[in-house]
Amino acid sequence: MPRSVNHVASRARRKKVLSATRGYFGSNKNVWTVAKNVYEKGLQYAYRDRRAKKRSFRALWIQRINAAARMEGMSYSQLIGKLKVNNIDINRKVLADLAMNQPAAFKAIVDKVK
Does residue 87 come out as left (phi exceeding 0), alpha (psi in the -120 to 50 range) or beta? Predict the structure, then answer.
């Protein structure tokens, strides 16, 4: 009896990978063995960078808070320390947004902890 290989499923698998690699340079987009490796590497980068994005956004928020706090005559660490002492629970994302878009509200928070 001849061997059965299910061409439909394997063709669909290849088509899915090759459609995901559209726009890649050179043989990365149309040679199956190369495209498969590039596709898998891309998934690894995506997994890694979903975590790195959280770190980089937190760093950005801290820089924005620090800049706004220094305009009010206080450093970032002093501000965060005084917020903790005064039991003001406000996260860095919201603080950075206030510092950027509503400086009066940020100033009110800084004045409250001074």
Answer: left
